Amino acid sequence: MPDYDVVVIGGGIGGLSAAALCQKAGMKTLVLEQSNRIGGCCSTYEAEGFHFDVGASVVEVTRAFDELFKRLEMPRERYIPLIPVDPIYDYCDNTRGVRFAYPTSVEDTARVIAEFSPEDAKAFLKFAEDYTPKIKGLVDNFFYAPSLGFMDTVRLIAKYPQMVSVLPMFVTTHQKIVARYFKNADVLASMAFQSFYAGLPPDMCAGLYAIVGLLEHEGIYYPEGGMIRIPAGIRQAFEDLGGETRFDARVVRVMVEGRRAVGVELWDGTQITARNVVGAINAKKLYEDMIGREHIPWHVWRGVRSLVLSMPCPMIYLGIDYEPPLNAHHTLTLTDPRIMNDYWSDYYLKGKLYVKDGRVEVMGLISWASKIDPSLAPPGKHVLTHMGLAPYNLAGNDWDRYKERYIDEAIATIERYIIPDLSKHVVYRDMATPKDLERMLLHPGGAVYGIQTDLSHMAVFRPANRSKCIKNLYLAGASTHPGGGVPAVVAGGIITGGLVVKDNA
Amino acid sequence: MKRRTKAMITLGAAGGLVAWLAVSTEPSDWRYAKLLLTQLPKMPFRYFV
């Protein structure tokens, strides 16, 4: 008799969500986390009294959590208390004297835009009018539906005919959609940066990411105590239902007998048998390193080998001794779509960092979490994190050697465009390079979004939530359907948990 | 549903997708088009992952 009904590899939010649903259905479930901290890249760590979010820095589409806790029949508010974040983000370029922040309200955002571009303000309202109905089709239907094959797509459309209006968004690009509406370069930059959440430039990112800019106007939130509160809350719910979590339990192999998953083997040789195995880690790593070629048919193996990892997001963590002159939880750095697009072909693919006027500049997102939750820093101090975009392999250099210089360059970029004199106030600094993210979180290539989110890696072309070649093996996490980002990963966990429960009913 | 019917639906959907892609991609989307064209031969294999 197997030790467990379900063993979940990885204590990230996708794995925990699936585990909680399995446990709720009465299946004896075990979550194995390789580190001593829950959450993977949706987590928080402490250093010298500062609490830094490892990767993810805000929550959109809270209905994914609500859906999970509704299915668990537990109150979400008790497990994951969320604080509203308003304004949504700040756009700032001190070199040109440009600064504006978008409030949650669509109408107020249009008023902000109207102050410098009345034409784009009207366009924003039209954009909201055109795309808000599509959000329902996409988020409420596609997000929670399995995408195991084309028949699932057909079934989804048959059930929700409004999905037809969403399909063109898969084929077109994010840039193409926003460029139809916005003409002012700064407004365009503020509407195109959401492709960053997919780890792709706007002209290569699937058009459906354009709705993220509108989804944020439904409200964005930050969990009390840092992003770790999300996995900690789901874990608490899972354990309240009787589930078990083990830390420092690194899985090295999925045990397969006759194309059927029968358990896992840990780094110390311990074998745990289970009726079902959920791999809530990068799908490529799961198939290539933990299952191996010998158990996978050649055509599936070819598909696995062809999967392209998403762009890594190096993280910079700064503890500062004053309240920074920022207006919002999130502030954008260098998100001009032209720069982001050219960065991909001229720099990223060549292993280079972006250089402007002979200086390396970092692009991305500053997060000021202690603005929302002051308990994250000692009194009078604050935490800032910067999420950037950079290649995994640096041409002619190595991340371990380059790390300190990169932090200097990031601080210099932020000083130039957003926070003058920042360097004088930094009392703690650290960084997670793409190599560090790979070592800490076991994300191959430091790819926090898992697999690249272009059309060729979406829906039926993304690793399926139920393995198509190994029986009783399921997948969750950013590299599987519906994709990366906190709400999508939770939604993926809901799909996976639902499949495990249904298949074992 | 018969395997043959399923295969026909799959082929039809894939063909439709390619046709849709062809008509909706503009010359200005060359980077995206290049990405998809290089990935297109790999997509049938990814379908089985």
Query: Averaging pLDDT over every residue of chain A, what do you get?
Result: 93
3D shape of chain A:
globular
Structural class from helices and strands of chain A?
alpha/beta
The helix content of chain A, as a percent range, equals 25-40%
Please tell me what the overall shape of chain B is. elongated
Number of strands of chain A: 20
Helix content estimate of chain B: over 70%
Mean pLDDT of chain B: 79
Descriptive account of the structure:
The complex is a heterodimer of chains A (505) and B (49). With 505 residues, chain A is α/β, with parallel strands linked by helices. Chain A has a domain at 315-441. Chain A is 36% helix and 19% strand. Chain A is built from 18 helices and 20 strands. In chain A, strands 1, 2, 9, 10, 11, 12 and 20 form a seven-stranded mixed beta sheet that branches. Chain A has a seven-stranded mixed beta sheet with strand order 7-6-14-17-18-13-19. Chain A has a two-stranded antiparallel ribbon with strand order 3-4. In chain A, strand 15 (355-356) and strand 16 (359-360) form a beta hairpin. The longest helix of chain A has 24 residues, at 118-141. The two termini of chain A are 18 Å apart. By secondary structure, chain B is mainly α. Chain B has a domain at 25-49. In chain B, 73% of the residues lie in helices and 0% in strands. Chain B has helices at 3-24, 30-39, 43-46. The radius of gyration of chain B is 13 Å and the shape is elongated. The mean pLDDT of chain B is 79. The chains are: A alpha/beta (505), B mainly alpha (49). The A-B interface holds A 149-151, 153-154, 168, 171-173, 176, 201, 203-204, 283, 287, 297, 299-300, 302-304, 306-308, 341, 344-345, 454-457, 460-464, 468-469 and B 1, 6, 9-10, 13-14, 17, 20-21, 24, 26, 29, 31-32, 35-36, 39-40, 42-43, 45-49.
